[in-house]
Amino acid sequence: xQNRELDFRVFAREACPVIDVRAGTTVFQLGEPGATMxxxxxxxxxxxxxxxxxxxxxxxxxxxxxxLIDALPRTATALVTEDAQLAVIDRKKYQFTLHELPSFAxxxxxxxxxxxxxxxxxx
Length: 123
Prior knowledge:
Layout: H1 4-15, E1 18-21, E2 26-28, E3 36-49, E4 52-57, E5 62-63, H2 66-70, E6 77-90, H3 91-100, H4 103-122
Antiparallel strand pairs: 1-6, 2-6, 3-4, 3-5, 3-6
């Protein structure tokens, strides 16, 4: 049986727009409204709050999902630290994925739990 989390990442790579971003680029900033989330296909992204790196993310990690969940502004700045390729998931694809790949919800919960722990450690 295939791993459902892998299925989600394959879906992101094949069914979503993919963008190339250079190191030093800011994907989004703390406080901005958010209408997309991202899956890292290659490269590294640092999630930053003020001068603190909350978490450093690599290939197959997802970020930016909180704004899709609660429609509130971004809680961190996403800074590209190594040239990256990102799959972009908008609200429509997010809703579709939740309905078609139920394990996506589990993936989101696990990711958010890890982020809460990372944030607590960083503070």
